[in-house]
Amino acid sequence: MGAIAAGCRFYAGYPITPATDVMTYLTGRIERYGGHVVQAEDELSAINMALGAARGGARSMTATSGPGIDLMTETFGLIATSETPLVICNVMRSGPSTGMPTKQEQGDLNHMLYGGHGEIPRFVLAPTTIDECFWKTVEAFNLAEKYQIPVYLTADLSMAVTEETFSPDAFDMDDVEVDRGFVVDESSIDDHLSESGGFQPHEITDDGISPRAFPGTADGAHMSTGLEHDEQGRRTEDTAMRVSQVDKRNQKVDTAREREDWSPREFGDADAESLVITWGSNEGALVEALDLLADDGVDVRVLSVPYIFPRPDLTEDVEAAENVIVVECNETGQFADLVEHDVLERVDRVNKYTGVRFKADELADEIKATLTEEVEA
Predict the structure, then answer these.
(1) Measured distance CA(374)–CA(192) in Å, rounded
(2) 342 CB contacts (<8 Å, ≥6 apart)?
(3) What pLDDT is stored for residue 230 in this prediction?
(4) Which helix (H) or strand (E) holds 20?
(5) pLDDT one-digit tens code per residue, 299-354
(6) H or E element: which one contains 246?
């Protein structure tokens, strides 16, 4: 429902528990608004069809579960490199492999954060309640187009199979805002042409967001490739351009950190010494548990995080608490690892991503310069 309200007009997917309900809900409904649902032959086809529709200018989406996310990973890199807005809904099941299709888990977090070869900027949104699924879906489409980036919208089996009654005003369509981002038309495209006259869909900008021209826009024809490219989309192995394009793509995440509100939801006693952090569908049970804890004289502050990446900076919250507990449905504590990572003391880094390896003298200079900066600081 959130996808339709957000203007999604193309969905491609392959049936897989517990994500199939996304496709079955859209089928017969999205057509009323000029949209289409395609049941693909597999998850690889589904995400490539969705990518094609997005390149064509439609708000597009696919949905799957863990095994399907694995299959979609290669195209995920193409989406990011081509700077195509796309929403990928991952309804998590127990894994690995085909796991337990009808059981609850939050085990795909690391894959959504780090899956794919190379370094791929992405957003990961995790609604914490049923009604928030609607609003976070709308937000996912807006973020995808504003920053021309793939967005993982993740829920889990418990949300997928939960039925809940809402009052009519829970989903006020007048509150739905659609932001298609930096789109240029015939009146403004001249400002984004190269010296040779070609449109620059990967133009280097301060905020990392390049102009986007829908197919059919006069003077907007351009190349699109999964290879590294210049501002016009033409393949290149120029090291300076490589660095500029990598920096540009990653700058979009930093820009989003500054422009968007990534705040967590807070419950319980704000002054409690004990802090409990959670994400996703655990919020409901945890909020109910607060009453049980209060009956036993235990005061707890709860932070429920709907944004996995970018995510809120919880450093001050963690450092101010006497005890910190992270609640999640997986064995290794994937979100707990992120919290620990965020509050650790930072290390200095020497990085290179031109496509050419380090040289000894270059490393010596970099290390000396870093140490000098530390001493001066």
Answers:
(1) 41
(2) 311, 313, 314, 315
(3) 97
(4) helix 20-26
(5) 999 999 999 999 999 999 999 999 999 999 999 999 999 999 999 877 788 888 88
(6) helix 239-259
Distances (CA, A) of 229 to 83, 149, 232, 249: 12, 17, 7, 12
Which tens digit of pLDDT belongs to each residue from 266-288?
999 999 999 999 999 999 999 99
Q: Return the residue matching tokens 């021309």.
A: 148
**How many Cα atoms within 13 Å fall on the side-chain side of residue 269?**
15
Spatial distance between the Cα atoms of 292 and 27, rounded to a whole number of angstroms: 42
Q: Which residue has the tokens 């989309």?
A: 233
What is the DSSP track for 63-129? Answer: EE-HHHHHHHHHHHHHHHHTT--EEEEEEE-B-STT-BTTS-----HHHHHH-SSS----EEE---S
Torsion sign over Cα 304, 308, 309, 314: positive
Tell me whether strands 307-309 and 123-125 are parallel, antiparallel or unpaired: antiparallel
Q: Burial of 75 by CB count in 10 Å (0-12 exposed, 13-18 middle, 19+ buried)?
A: buried
Peptide bond into 310 cis (omega under 30): yes
Q: Which of 142, 172, 161, 167 lies closest to 1 in space, CA to CA?
A: 172
Q: Which two tokens stand for residue 28?
A: 């017969």
Considering the domain 265-343 in this protein, what is its CATH number?
A: 3.40.50.920
119-137 b/e (C-beta count within 10 Å ≥ 16 → b): ebbbbbbbbbbbebbbbbb
- 3-state SS, residue 137: helix
Q: Would you kindly state where each structural domain of the chain is located, as residue ranges?
A: 2-175, 265-343
Average pLDDT, the chain: 94
CATH topology (fold) of 2-175: Rossmann fold (3.40.50)
